Amino acid sequence: MKQKILLISLLLLFAATIPVLSDEEQTETLPVPLEQNQTREMNVNEEKPLIIPPKWTDFCETGYENAVYKDSRDIFNIFSFVKSERVKKNYWAERRVSFESYLKSCNALDNSAKAACYEELKNIENQKNELYRLKRKQLLYENNIDIHRR
Length: 150
Fold this sequence. Notes:
Layout: H1 2-17, H2 23-26, H3 34-46, H4 80-107, H5 111-142
Helix pairs in contact: 4-5
């Protein structure tokens, strides 16, 4: 342990002694003609804000990002945990299909409407997640399972 601390302190000491050069010191700035400077300002002002589409992983429960809907029943369906896991996977698979179809319709819109469409999609998915949490709590309550027992 002492060796690790000594090694880390030596690395920090060594890193502190290395001179750091800023970009201004490394390169010279050449004067830019007035016409080029004006076009740069115009390009900056004309740039539209970047519209980032929402991602499915932002809304999906961990482990169910690539869930696939399975309608088949197998021999292990008599066990409640197998059945509940299949139901949960199917739920997230249906949600993903719904999310992707809504996202596809948003992507088909022009840039001015995309931001509003993405925001609406985020709101819808957040509402679905909240409803999902409430239903799970209610189900646990109905089955007399204490959430904070551990």
